[in-house]
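Fig. S4 source data, part A: sequence.
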Amino acid sequence: MTRLSLAFAVASLALSTLPALAFDSADRNAVTQEVAGFTKAVDAKDYSVFFDTVPPKMMQAIADQTGVPKEQLEDIMRKQINDAMASVTIDDFEMNIAAMKTGETSSGRAYAQIPTSTVMEVPDMGKVRSTNTTLALQDGEEWYLVRIDSPAQIAVLRKVYPDFEGIEFPKGTMEAVR
């Protein structure tokens, strides 16, 4: 065997034993498309997107926690969010893909943390800015988007996806805007 062939064989063997990249260009494209669809829905005031992008396993966990069947819970939550948002005006909504941080969980699950900001006018509060993180996570072949800004949301996430244990999430904030 020539040195070149031996070197090629060793390099091929070494490359074949490397783990797959946790977050590759296909993942970035998939997340970018999810974010674009989400943003378009928010701009169109289609707030059902808040539930349509949550992993079914998380919705089921919330349903189990509340003792309400999942379909009924989704209907209740849709009505509540539509009622709440009826008097709110969103002035600006951004999921900052350029600033997203990617990684993988202990089980190798790809994910991205996307800084998210919403400026809105809320009755009895005035104009406020909500800053939080949207978690893009992969479950099987599907990508989902979950807003992560409270300990309760993180607890449900980690109950359903224990491989997110130990991964830190920025704390959400809300502040008055002048």
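Fig. S4 source data, part B ends here. The two ends are 74 Å apart (CA to CA).
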